[in-house]
Amino acid sequence: MDLVKLQGLLDNAAFAVLLVTMLVYWVGVAFPRVPFLANLGTTGMAIANLCIAALLSARWLEAGYFPLSNLYESLFFLTWGITAIHFVAETMSRSRLVGAATAPIAMSIVAFATLTLPDDMQASAPLVPALKSNWLMMHVSVMMLSYATLMVGALLAIAFLVVTRGQSVELRGSSVGTGAYRDRSYTLHATSEIPAASANGNSATAVLTAPAVTPLPLSPQRLSLADTLDNISYRIIGLGFPLLTIGIIAGAVWANEAWGSYWSWDPKETWALITWLVFAAYLHARITKGWQGRRPAILAATGFVVVWVCYLGVNLLGKGLHSYGWFL
C-alpha cells in the first residue's frame, strides 16, 4: 500500500472514530451512571490521536519535510494537538464533560479537512523558497500547539458557562487551587409602582421595592463540576499562553531572516498580537485581580473566537506575508 492510499485511509478513519467518540461522550453526559462510556470515549480519542499521528508521519516521509506547509496538514496537526491536550484536561478533571466539549471541535476540523478541501489542497507539494527553513518546524509547530491548548482551555470555560447557566457563581479558593465554592449572594431588586391608599382615602402611587426573580439554585454536583472546570480551564490556558509567546518570538526571528524585519504588522501578526493580549488580560485578571467564575470564562470564550480568526479567518478574508496559498 502506498503512502497516498494510507493517508486516505487514516484521515477517514480519524473522522469516523471522532464521530463515534463524540456521540459516546454525549451519551455519557446524558447517562452518567453508565460506567464504561467514559473509558470508551477516552479510548476513542486515543485511537484518533494515533491515526492523526500516523497520517502526519506518512506525510513527513512522503514529502521529506515537517508536515505543516498547507491548510490540510495544519488542520490535522491542530486536531492532533487538541486530542493530546484533551488527555491532560481529562486526567486533571476526571469529567466526561471535557470530551463532550473537545470531541465535536476535533471531529469538525477533521471533517472540514477531509470532506471539504479539494484534492489538490490535500496533496503534498514542494515547499516555496520562503518556507525552506528550520524555523518552519520551530515556529509553526509551537504556534499550532498554542492554538490547540488555548482552544481546549477556552472550551472548558464555555463548558463552565453552560454548567452554571451563565449565573454569577463565586468560587472560593485560589485560582490554581481546588477549593470549595459558595453561591454569590444575590441582592437584585426590581422597582415597581403600585397604587396605594393615602391617609385621606385618595388613591396615590407608592414606590415599593420587590425582590426580583432569583436564579435557580445550582445543585452541589453542578457547583463542584463548575469549580473543577474553572480551575482546569485556567491551568490549560496558563500552559497555552507561554507556547503562544514562544511561537510569536520565534516567528519574529524568522521574519527578520526572511524579510529583514522582526515585525511588519501583517494581518496574521496583528491578530497573533490581539490573541496574545486577550489571553494576557485573562491571566492578569485571574492572577492580579483574583477573578474567578463567569467573568474570566466570558473572556476566555472571546479568546476562542479570536484564536479562530487569527488561525483561519485572516487567511480567508485577506492576504499578507503569511499567505502562501493556503499556508497558515
What does this structure look like?
The chain has 328 residues and is mainly alpha-helical. The chain folds into two domains: 1-126, Four Helix Bundle (Hemerythrin (Met), subunit A) (Up-down Bundle), CATH 1.20.120; 147-168 and 221-328, no CATH class. Helix content is 66%, strand content 5%. It has nine helices and two strands; from the N terminus they run ααααααββααα. Strands 1-2 form a two-stranded antiparallel sheet. β1 (189-197) and β2 (203-211) form a beta hairpin. α1 (3-30) packs antiparallel against α2. The longest helix has 40 residues, at 220-259. The model is unreliable at 176-199, 203-213 and 324-328 (pLDDT under 50).
Q: How do the strands and helices of this protein lay out in sequence?
A:
Layout: H1 3-30, H2 36-63, H3 71-93, H4 96-116, H5 119-122, H6 135-163, E1 189-197, E2 203-211, H7 220-259, H8 267-287, H9 294-317
Helix pairs in contact: 1-2, 1-4, 2-3, 3-4, 3-6, 3-7, 4-6, 6-7, 6-9, 7-8, 8-9
Total count of domains: 2
> What does the largest sheet look like?
2 strands, antiparallel
Give unreliable regions as ranges: 176-199, 203-213, 324-328
Helix content: 55-70%
**Overall geometry:** flat
**β content, as a range?**
5-15%
Radius of gyration: 24 Å
Secondary-structure element order, N to C: HHHHHHEEHHH
Q: How many alpha or pi helices?
A: 9
Please identify the structural class as seen in this structure.
Answer: mainly alpha
The strand order across the widest sheet is 1-2
**Mean pLDDT score:** 78
Compute the number of strand runs: 2
